[in-house]
Specification:
Elements: H1 4-7, E1 18-21, H2 27-39, E2 44-49, H3 62-77, E3 81-85, H4 98-102, E4 109-114, E5 124-130, E6 136-143, H5 167-170, H6 185-203, E7 213-217, E8 230-232, H7 237-245, H8 264-293, E9 297-301, E10 318-322, H9 340-350, E11 357-362, H10 370-381, E12 387-390, E13 393-394, H11 419-435, E14 439-440, E15 444-448, H12 456-463, E16 469-472, H13 475-478, E17 481-482, E18 487-489, E19 492-494, E20 496-499, H14 506-511, H15 513-517, E21 521-523, H16 527-537, E22 542-544, E23 551-558, E24 561-568, E25 574-580, E26 584-590, E27 595-600, E28 605-609, E29 614-621
Parallel strand pairs: 1-2, 1-13, 2-3, 3-7, 7-9, 10-11, 11-12, 15-16, 15-20, 20-21
Antiparallel strand pairs: 4-6, 4-8, 5-6, 14-23, 17-18, 18-19, 22-25, 23-24, 24-29, 25-28, 26-27, 26-29
Helix pairs in contact: 2-3, 6-8, 7-8, 10-11
């Protein structure tokens, strides 16, 4: 028998879309859309103030907050959940320009290379040197005049649609509020007070239950739209950089700009890793501590898809699938974006966090199909995601609003009234339950760095049907228990660690000395040799008659049974015979009806999966 909790999962496990509040807000219309969400199996949402808000709904204004309260109260009445969003558009950290309005010293800063010494107030000389041509050059710490995307169109443009152009070309001019210096802890403290504390003052009675989390969105250390060729920095930041790196970086500053400098790539990577560590201390950690103290989860995602280091500060770690980065075939396993679902799932399990989130479908374009929507959701689910955040449900598509990072997945989508959509929502809800508080059958980890996760070794493991998590290397000396036979971190016990030569540091090699001697550290240098050793060391829980390189596998233990997800992420249909783990009675689950087949899977059971199709199998012990 299937557990009742699978058939009708906890409402908090449903899809939780971004709800773009992007026009003049009318409460009856908001409540009508909210009711439509629930009718279609959507039990929660992210309130996202978005480009197109009219001027009478300024960020954190009384009218906006009153609309939020009314919607939150209705969500509570319906037993729905609400995730609050911490910015007036994005990237997070500026409170729609209010941080800089309070103190201009909190404006975003950076380092600029120039050929004249600094003369303006607030422009500080950091380093000077003579170039190979004999010219003096200067590195200057200064405000870089960067901004964020705002929530208001420039007057008169929001109601206009430009015909005969793509949605990217049609986007209307919008406000750009000044960005904050996120490397300055005083500036971040101001941001927390203006947004997080204000939310608590207004809605604290709903925290933890109706409002379980606040979403922070890809904070950029340099904001956006700066007219300068700047590098990240702030007053006194080099003291932190030197301390983190263990050497004096100042003589290497020219390498941040000049490609012909010796070993420039390595020094740039060192510098950016140090800056991201500083951002952890000044931004992510204070937000995380505030959320923990107020019984709420910090969720959202960092700037880049493989920034796993920042995710240790999220109670619900997350990532973001955008711009068509994930598609059937090669794009499902190639490039930095292909690491992000495992990035968030790995961060969550190693920190023993209950949820991991993925915003997805943003800026995929106007004409996507429901099948592609389903494909990306399945891609996330088979990698362990248990909080799906579709981007986005639009409140309004009036005028230029229709061009703000489509597709529209909510009330304005062409499939909004289709029964197939409701079933899709239900299936995602049930699969999130499978991934929630379950134990993955996984004994392999891939070593990564705080801002670098290997994709090549990940692809090989996927193709061999061997599940894995990414293990950030600092866990080896901060959080994990490393012995000759295993690496234990959180609830996981790994008996094999995979590493790529450019993603393992000397400190990691030293820490893994005994583990490596026992033959449990596997370096990917020669692919054929790697696969030979891998298959000798790890037995996949699935035997296939054909290699099926595009078939993905996830097996978890939950409620005394095994649950096996199979997903075809290739462009073509596949057919093969499979044998699942022995010792279990395996049957297929009809995900739409939540019913269990009476047919038991035998050895060499034939299966067929179309492109993007996901199947779920239920294994009970004999």
């Amino acid at each position: 028998m299937l557990p009742p909790a699978f058939i009708s999962p906890d409402k908090r496990l449903s899809l939780t879309p971004f709800w773009f509040w992007n026009d003049k807000l009318e409460l009856p219309r908001l409540l009508k859309q909210l009711a439509e969400f629930q009718e279609r199996g959507i039990q929660g949402f992210v309130i996202h103030p978005r480009i197109g808000l009219t001027r009478d709904f300024e960020w954190m204004s009384r009218p906006l907050l009153e609309c939020m309260r009314s919607v939150i109260e209705e969500a509570k009445r319906r037993d729905m959940h609400v995730i609050l969003y911490d910015e007036a558009m994005y990237p997070s950290g500026s409170s729609g320009g209010q941080v800089v309005a309070e103190n201009t010293d909190f404006a975003c800063r950076g380092m600029v290379m120039q050929y004249k010494p600094p003369s303006a107030s607030g422009h500080n000389l950091v380093y000077e040197w003579k170039t190979q041509s004999g010219q003096m050059a200067y590195v200057v710490d200064r405000p870089i005049e960067s901004a964020i995307r705002g929530v208001h169109f420039q007057d008169g443009f929001g109601d206009v649609v430009v015909e005969g152009a793509s949605w990217m070309e049609r986007r209307a001019p919008e406000d750009h509020p000044p960005a904050t210096d996120l490397l300055n802890p005083e500036a971040v403290a101001c941001f927390i007070r203006l947004v997080y504390q204000r939310y608590f003052d207004e809605f604290g009675e709903f925290f933890e239950n109706t409002i379980p989390a606040i979403f922070t969105d890809e904070p950029y250390v340099m904001g956006r739209f700066s007219p300068f060729d700047a590098r990240p920095g702030t007053i006194g930041v080099l003291e932190h950089v030197n301390s983190y790196l263990g050497y004096d970086f100042i003589p290497h500053l020219p390498k941040l700009w000049l490609d012909d400098e010796h070993d420039a790539k390595r020094y740039r990577a060192d510098y950016h890793r140090a800056i991201y560590h500083r951002l952890e201390e000044t931004y992510y950690q204070p937000l995380s501590q505030w959320c923990e103290a107020h019984s709420i989860a910090l969720t959202g995602h960092p700037e880049h898809a493989d920034n796993i280091g920042h995710l240790r500060y999220f109670q619900w770690p997350g990532q973001d699938v955008i711009l068509g980065d994930i598609l059937p075939g090669e794009k499902a396993v190639t490039g930095v974006p292909s690491t992000q679902a495992k990035c968030a799932a790995s961060a969550a399990i190693h920190q023993s966090r209950p949820r991991n989130a993925n915003e997805f479908m943003g800026a995929y374009g106007e004409s996507i199909s429901l099948s592609l929507y389903r494909f990306v959701a399945n891609w996330l689910l088979v990698r362990g995601c248990n909080l799906l955040l579709p981007h986005a449900f639009f409140y309004s598509i009036r005028g230029a609003r229709v061009d703000d990072c489509p597709p529209q997945l909510g009330p304005h989508a062409r499939w909004w009234n289709d029964a197939e959509l409701v079933e899709f929502h239900q299936v995602c809800h049930r699969l999130c339950w499978v991934n929630f508080e379950s134990e993955p059958l996984c004994s392999v980890a891939i070593l990564g760095r705080s801002d670098q996760l290997p994709e090549r070794s990940a692809r090989l493991l996927y193709e061999q049907k061997i599940d894995f998590h990414y293990l950030e290397e600092r866990y080896l000396w901060e959080d994990a228990r490393v012995s000759a036979n295993a690496i234990e971190v959180g609830p996981m016990r790994y008996t094999l660690l995979v590493a790529e030569p450019d993603c393992i540091s000397p400190k990691a090699i030293d820490t893994l000395c005994d583990f490596s001697r026992s033959g449990r550290l596997l370096l990917l240098e020669n692919e054929a040799v790697f696969l030979k050793h891998l298959n000798a060391l790890v037995e996949a829980p699935l035997i296939l008659n054909d290699p099926c390189p595009w078939l993905r596998l996830r097996v978890v233990r939950k409620d005394g049974a095994l649950w096996c997800l199979l997903f075809n992420e290739g462009e073509e249909a596949l057919a093969t015979n499979m044998t699942l783990l022995p010792g279990f009675r395996w049957r297929e689950i009809d995900l739409g009806s939540a019913s269990l087949s009476s047919i038991e899977l035998t050895r060499d059971f034939p299966i067929q999966l179309s492109s993007g199709e996901l199947r779920l199998y239920f294994g009970e012990s004999y």
